[in-house]
Amino acid sequence: MSNLPNCPKCQSQYTYEDGSLIVCPECSYEWNIDSQEGADDFEIVKDANGNTLEDGDNISIIKDLKVKGSSSILKQGTKVKGIRLVEGDHNIDCKIDGFGAMKLKSEFVKKL
């Protein structure tokens, strides 16, 4: 059994090495073997009310959002289940029932 550290994001014990990175299969977080601070490598994502969001949370959209490249609109109050946090400007990756895969900004959602 290897002596790898637990995931700094979700505390999973099932981490494994992939080249020069350590990978967590449960939350998909990756960090450098040489980097022992680990937990400082990911950004804390907060919703419009300041609540901390995590992978798997359920959220609600707080305002009507126009969808780029489409005439569709995501209505205020639309509920989204099981989000996944990603890096970037649109930091929430999700599937919306009746709409499909979508990336959202955390400033336009609230945690349920």
Automatic annotation (TrEMBL):
Q: Name one Pfam family in it.
A: YjdM
Q: Which SUPFAM superfamilies does UniProt cross-reference here?
A: Prokaryotic SH3-related domain, Zinc beta-ribbon
Q: Per the database record, which ranges form the Protein YjdM C-terminal domain?
A: 45-111
Q: Where are the transmembrane segments?
A: none
Q: Which InterPro entries match?
A: YjdM, YjdM_C, YjdM_N
The source's domain of life comes to Bacteria
Q: The Protein YjdM N-terminal domain covers which part of the protein?
A: 4-32
What are the coiled-coil residue ranges?
none
Family to which this protein belongs: Belongs to the YjdM family.
PANTHER family named in the record: PROTEIN YJDM, PROTEIN YJDM-RELATED
Write the protein's name.
Answer: Protein PhnA
What broad taxonomic lineage does this protein's source fall under?
Bacteria, Bacillati, Bacillota, Bacilli, Bacillales
